Amino acid sequence: MTALRLVAVSAGLGRPSSSRLLADRLTEAVRRRLPGEAAVRVIELRDLAADVANAMVTGFPSPRLREAIEAVTEADGLIAVTPVFTASYSGLFKSFFDVVEEGALAGMPVVVAATGGTARHSLVLDHALRPMFAYLRAVVAPTGVYAASEDWGGSGDAATGPLSERVARAGEELAALMPARAARPRPADEVVPFEQRLAELRP
């Protein structure tokens, strides 16, 4: 059985980043629920910020940005995490998905997640993230996860409490959606006409 491919995209800007921490928690929650092994990758957009900006201006992604985009579009499941800036997703987060080819995320199972300073920004999941991925024709898991500063607790650990419950539920939902994505028909290799193959054999 081929390992399912899980990719998490984190738009956190700091190191350490609460967005990356949430991405890691969600990734682990999905892995625990998958029936077999999973090939997991976390993409930190912070490292690709200049590449994303250049691609927006020129229309041509750099090799490492192209490789990151391919990892996302070829995944069987996606975790998308952004910090909240001005009551919405970050510009870097939006710009990354703007440079993804139109239609490439159609049918992609996605868990949307966000981090912010206070719980009042939690509606970003429903007024910004869900509509964006619906426009991209992705399949958004019912449970979105928002983590405010107080959700992590004084120790910075979210191992117990409501946040861990939301993370576990979202992980279960994404894990349930991924096998169907993995079973989708892959694009067939390009068919070369017989006449063209024959011509290539001639001296």
UniProtKB/TrEMBL annotation:
It comes from the Bacteria. The keyword rRNA processing does not apply. The keyword Flavoprotein applies. Pfam families: FMN_red (PF03358). Keywords: Flavoprotein, FMN, Oxidoreductase. SUPFAM superfamilies: Flavoproteins. Residues 5-152 form the NADPH-dependent FMN reductase-like domain. This is Oxidoreductase. It comes from Microbispora corallina. The lineage of its organism: Bacteria, Bacillati, Actinomycetota, Actinomycetes, Streptosporangiales.
